Amino acid sequence: MKIVDDDLSGSTFSDVNLSNATFYDVNLAAAVFSDVNFSGAAIDNVDLSGVKITDCKIDGMTIEGILVTDLMTVYRK
User: Fold this and answer.
1) DSSP letter (8 states) at residue 5
2) pLDDT band, very low/low/confident/very high, at 52 (cuts 50, 70, 90)
3) How far apart are CA 55 and CA 53, in angstroms?
4) How far apart are CA 47 and CA 77, in angstroms?
5) Pick from 40, 72, 70, 42: nearest CA to 54
6) Which residues contact 41 (CB under 8 A, 6 or more apart)?
7) Spatial separation of the C-alpha atoms in residues 35 and 70, rounded to whole Å
8) Where are the domains of the chain?
9) Predicted local distance difference test score (pLDDT) of residue 72
10) DSSP assignment letter at 68
11) How confident is the model at residue 51, as a pLDDT?
């Protein structure tokens, strides 16, 4: 399926498989992700200001090539 120049604001996606999907020039401001599998996903050139990440598995997650688990270890010291 290819959706181009459409307004899907307010939509709800439940039990949907979007693996290997590509999102380009997409507005996800104020979107909520819960029980989502982002393993292996790549995020590039994204505005993450104000993003809250809670109760998530972060093993192997990196930011600018640095393991987040290492960052959290240093932060907690």
Assistant:
1) S
2) very high
3) 7
4) 28
5) 72
6) none
7) 24
8) 1-77
9) 94
10) H
11) 94
Closest CA to 27 of 54, 5, 60: 5
Q: Is 67 exposed, middle or buried (0-12, 13-18, 19+ CB in 10 A)?
A: middle
Angstrom CA distances, 65 to 10, 27, 37, stand at: 34, 25, 21
Instruction: Scan for tokens 């930011």, then name that residue.
Output: 63
Q: How far apart are CA 51 and CA 30, in angstroms?
A: 9
- Predicted TM-score (pTM) above 0.90: no
Amino acid sitting at position 62: T
The residue behind tokens 């120049």 is 5
